[in-house]
Amino acid sequence: MGLQDINDRIANAETDAGRVPGSVKLIAVSKVQPNARVQAVLEQGHRCFGENKVQEAAGKWPDFRETFEGIELHLIGPLQTNKARQAMGLFDAIHSVDRPKLAKTIARIAQEEGQCPDLFLQVNTGEEEQKAGVFPADADAFVAECRALDLPVKGLMCIPPVDEEPSLHFALLAKIAERNGLSGLSMGMSSDFERAIALGATHVRVGSAIFGERVVG
């Protein structure tokens, strides 16, 4: 495993699905990874990374950005409204816009700051009570609400239930995106990203398969 292996697998999955080469963006999920591992991946030329927490990203990425040009940082974890302003200054894209209150907060700050990261709306495709995101039945209305707020909605994101076939959830997300005219699909992780690519993923989120198992403690 490693960056080259994942890039090769993505390229093969694009070919198998009849996708344009390079149409899938690999987000290297660097949360809870030691800086040395992240730097090693940066030194291999990779520039697109994902973080779960605003505070962790704030402590890690400003220094890396001084050393490496062209870094693109994606927030893939839940965002509290009181961290929205800080997140909007740190991240190029936010994948976890999961409720109207957060959308309104982002819209207000975007008006004040004159800029806004790309946004993906999180859909709780499995309708799991403990998981963030709007239910599929509410997704169309949420897209419309965010567009009415003049937010740059690029696509949708989902995290399928761990005990269900992810392809069913990827297909559902793709269907919701298509009927809303959204091209971005943030779906697929280390264990299932090839299936996500087959169903239209534009962004896949891969961590441990690139960096090794997370260091916790």
Give the proportion of residues in helices.
40-55%
Rounded mean pLDDT score: 96
- What's the arrangement of strands in the largest beta sheet? 7-6-5-4-3-2-1-8
Order of helices and strands: HEHEHEHEHEHEHEHEH
- pLDDT under 50 segments (min length 5)? none
* Largest β sheet strand count, sense and barrel closure: 8 strands, parallel
Architecture overview:
Helix content is 44%, strand content 16%. The radius of gyration is 17 Å and the shape is globular. It has helices at residues 3-16, 35-43, 54-67, 84-90, 100-113, 136-148, 166-179, 193-198, 208-211, and strands at residues 25-29, 48-51, 72-75, 93-97, 118-122, 153-157, 184-186, 203-206. The longest helix is centred in the N-terminal third of the chain and has 14 residues, at 3-16. With 217 residues, it is an alpha/beta fold. An eight-stranded parallel sheet has the order 7-6-5-4-3-2-1-8.
